[in-house]
């Protein structure tokens, strides 16, 4: 068994992709709300660092624990026949792919078609005489 099949079996890829999408959404909300609430730039930086530091922790928990109908258990304690991973649902995969597609299309639209207000203005320097 390769490492990638084991990561897939333990749903680490799904948990990591959901975490990344959720972090992106949190950062987008903070970037919109922070200037209106006059929150310092350090707050956004701290949240970003916390989210980046939390990523390996979430991946380790996804590796070590399994979500079962009886609750959260260690992966080695889960019976293979009764595990939730035995009945995979493609709905979650399609939902994840759709969310990724929407995020990528939003970023592409913003980079390609949205023109910044500063780019329309011609920059110049005004020189005034001293008296």
Structure, explained:
With 131 residues, this protein is mainly alpha-helical. 64% of the residues lie in helices and 6% in strands. The chain has helices at residues 3-9, 12-37, 41-64, 90-112, 117-120, and strands spanning 65-68, 71-74. It has a two-stranded antiparallel sheet with strand order 1-2. A hairpin with a 2-residue loop joins strand 1 and strand 2 (71-74). Helix 2 (12-37) crosses helix 4. The radius of gyration is 23 Å and the shape is elongated. It starts with a helix and ends in an 11-residue tail after the last helix. The model has no long low-confidence stretch (mean pLDDT 80).
Question: Topology, pairings included?
Answer:
Blueprint lengths: L2 H7 L2 H26 L3 H24 E4 L2 E4 L15 H23 L4 H4 L11
Antiparallel strand pairs: 1-2
Descriptors:
131 residues; mainly alpha; 5 helices
Condensed summary:
The chain has helices spanning 3-9, 12-37, 41-64, 90-112, 117-120; strands at 65-68, 71-74.
* Uncertain segments: none
Number of helices: 5
Kindly report the average pLDDT value.
Answer: 80
Strand-and-helix sequence, N→C?
HHHEEHH
Largest sheet: 2 strands, antiparallel
What is the structural class?
mainly alpha
Strand arrangement across the biggest beta sheet: 1-2
Q: Tell me what portion of residues adopts beta-strand conformation.
A: 5-15%
Number of strands: 2
| Measured distance between first and last alpha carbons | 83 Å
Helix share of residues?
A: 55-70%
* Rounded radius of gyration (Å): 23 Å
